[in-house]
Amino acid sequence: MNVNTLSRMVVVFAISGVLLTGTSIATNGQNQDKQEKQQRKQQRKAEQQQTGQGQTAQKQAKQQRKQAAQADQQQQQNRQQNQAAQNQADKQRRQDAQAEQQQQNRQQNQAAQSEANRQQRQGRADRERSPNDRQQRVEQQQQREIQYREQFAQQQRLTQQRTAQLQQQRRMAQYRYQREYLMRLQQIRIQNARSYSSNRNLYFYAAPNYRYSRGGSYYQTNQYGANLLRQAVNYGYEQGYRSGQADRQDRWNSSYQDSYAYQDANYGYSGYYVDQGDYNYYFREGFRRGYEDGYDSRHQYGSYSNGRYSILGAVLSLVLNLEPLR
């Protein structure tokens, strides 16, 4: 009896142990399933967040591209508007410049016509008042031309001497300047001869309307002579500037009186309208000032524009001091 009871108790304990073991296994399985479900849920949530972030980034990138395209379009429109405004401004400036040039041309034509009319009236009055003045002016002009031709032959000999001297001194910049001076001198002489041939009769009849002083004496001249004296000072300044530049390039001592152009002083003169001595004097006055500016590389007495050196108007008036006759 006791043995049977003991056996049944053993069996009961064994069955209980099996049941407890199965229950524990089932519980562990359920816990594992819950964890896996939780992990999948978190993974899906993370994927949804990533998808949402990607869509947001795409929307932002799309918006940025749209804004950049709008900015490029606005810049293009601004450039087109600016170009159109610039074209319009350029067109307006050209029209203004043309209108101004036309106005200047009209004024110049009116001034030239007024001067021609004045000279004709003055010529008629001059012929009626003193018939001998024209003959006297013709004789003076003939004497000027003879004197100029004689001195021109002397200057030819001086040219050869100066050329050889510059080559010996190796003053190549001054040598090139002198050669250009002589070439241009020939061209101007031909131009002056043509101009004089056209204006000769008007000059003979034109009465004096200016006076100027030189060496303590006063001299009278008409419009043709006054224009030539102004040209003498301007030509002198221009050639003086170029000669001064050449001496500076040759590293030669400053000496305007040593220049061939200063000694010649006939650049732009062909024996017409005024005495040669007067032209030489005013040419040298301009030359001295131009040489100083050119040698020192400055513009105290003149200016540079369109490839030309010109003496300042105030300096020209001071040097020439032309006074209209009342």
Ends apart, CA distance between termini: 176 Å
Low-confidence stretches: none
Percent of sequence in beta strands: 5-15%
- Helix/strand class: mainly alpha
Largest sheet: 3 strands, antiparallel
Shape: elongated
The overall average pLDDT, rounded, is 81
Our Rg estimate from Cα atoms comes to: 52 Å
- Secondary structure: number of strands: 5
Question: H/E order of the elements?
Answer: HHHEEHHHEEHE
Strand order of the largest sheet: 2-1-5
**Helical segment count:** 7
Helix content: over 70%
Would you kindly provide a written description of the structure presented here, covering whatever features stand out?
The chain is mostly helical and 326 residues long. It is built from 7 helices and 5 strands. A hairpin with a 2-residue loop joins strand 1 (210-214) and strand 2 (217-221).
